[in-house]
Amino acid sequence: MSKTARKGAQGSAAVAASEPTGPRPARLTAAAVLTGLQGLALAASGIYLLVMGLLGTPDSPQQAETGGLTVLALAALPLLAARGLWQLRRWSRGPAMITQIMALPVAWTLLNAGGALMITAAVALTLVAVVTLALVVNPTATEALGIGPRES
């Protein structure tokens, strides 16, 4: 075996050893599901905006279509984070937390928009974001993801 092949084999063994194994904790499963639902809701909203921009009669079809494509692109973050949490990937914690932190100003905007439906949506979004944040930063979840205190 050549020196390069041995190095590659050692590197892949080190990567495999650093990947978390074992059962997925219920808290991490719940965080993955909630984050995935947020991503699906964003994707559905993006598709709705896109379809209404193409087939409806908005004031500005171009703006509606651009908004729909933007929301579809934004849906990728929580969907990827949910997949990573489900697969116990340590990189997924950051995008999941960013998704929840970004949801809080959206909830505030919905709350200030007024109306029973908007206030209900704001409360629901706030609850999902705070609960998911708590689940993701929970010590059980961080341990399952292979995230721990840094060694000096």
Low-pLDDT stretches are: 12-17
The number of distinct helices, counting runs of at least 4 residues, comes to: 6
Radius of gyration: 20 Å
Helix content: over 70%
The string of secondary-structure elements, in order, is: HHHHHH
* Amount of beta strand: under 5%
Counting helices, strands and paired strands, the structural category is mainly alpha
Count of extended strands: 0
Q: So what's the oligomer here?
A: single chain
Largest sheet: none
Shape: elongated
How far is it from the N-terminal to the C-terminal residue, by CA? Answer: 35 Å
The averaged pLDDT comes out at: 88
Q: Topology of this structure?
A:
Blueprint: H1 3-18, H2 26-55, H3 61-86, H4 93-113, H5 116-137, H6 139-144
Helix pairs in contact: 2-3, 2-5, 3-4, 4-5
Transmembrane segments: 28-55, 67-86, 107-136
Protein name: Integral membrane protein
Region (Disordered): 1-23
Please outline what is shown here.
With about 150 residues, this protein is mostly helical. Helices cover about 80% and strands about 0% of the residues.
Structural overview:
The chain starts with a helix and ends in an 8-residue tail after the last helix. The chain is built from six helices and no strands. The chain is mainly alpha-helical and about 150 residues long. The relative contact order is 0.14. About 80% of the residues lie in helices and about 0% in strands. The protein has helices at about 5-20, 25-55, 60-85, 95-115, 115-135, 140-145. The radius of gyration is 20 Å and the shape is elongated.
